[in-house]
Design a protein that fits this description.
alpha+beta, about 20% helix, two-stranded antiparallel ribbon, single chain, about 170 residues
């Protein structure tokens, strides 16, 4: 795995991948606590009708593909460096409760391997001209070409309604 250098945090003005939003709502109490919850000593905070908000991030939809190697009888996963996972590790290692943009980050204290994940083959749906099934097919082709694998069967045959894979690798 490669290492990383020249790590810093910058402010984000806009992004084509995410959009910060605030959800405003009023939660109204309806009904009573069930005896199950009371008997099992769970605490439940009943809302009092006050206006509230929750900050969230809207991002692209994505496709996820489960790959199975028929010859080896094993699932196929992808190992990738994920900057968000790396930064979470940096925050823990450097005890950065409130990170500030513009401050360089000492990457020698956190190895790049801390940002490596093992995950399903996946891709964001960011090409309006392509259907989700076509994006899934592209992602699988990319994985196969990166690792010089050969198709055992024709490329993915996905159903339009359920995304079920009809052929395995």
């Amino acid at each position: 795995m490669e290492d990383i250098k020249d790590v810093s945090l910058e402010g984000l003005q806009s992004s084509q991948y995410i959009k910060p939003m605030r959800l405003k709502y009023t939660q109204v109490k309806r009904g009573r606590l069930s005896s199950f919850i009371c008997r099992n000593s769970f605490s439940l905070l009943l809302q009092d009708g006050r206006a509230k908000f929750w900050d969230l991030v809207i991002c692209h939809n994505a496709v996820y593909i489960v790959l199975f190697n028929v010859d080896r009888k094993k699932l196929v996963f992808v190992k990738q460096f994920r900057p968000t996972v790396y930064f979470a590790s940096v925050r823990r290692n450097l005890d950065m409760d409130k990170p500030k943009p513009g401050v360089p980050i000492n990457s020698s204290s956190t190895p790049a391997s801390d940002g490596v994940t093992i995950e399903l083959c996946a891709g964001i749906i960011d090409k309006p001209a392509l259907k989700a099934q076509e994006i899934a097919r592209e992602e699988v082709r990319t994985i196969f070409s990166l690792f010089h694998l050969r198709w055992r069967y024709p490329p993915l045959a996905l159903s339009d309604s359920s995304f079920s894979v009809n052929k395995y690798f």
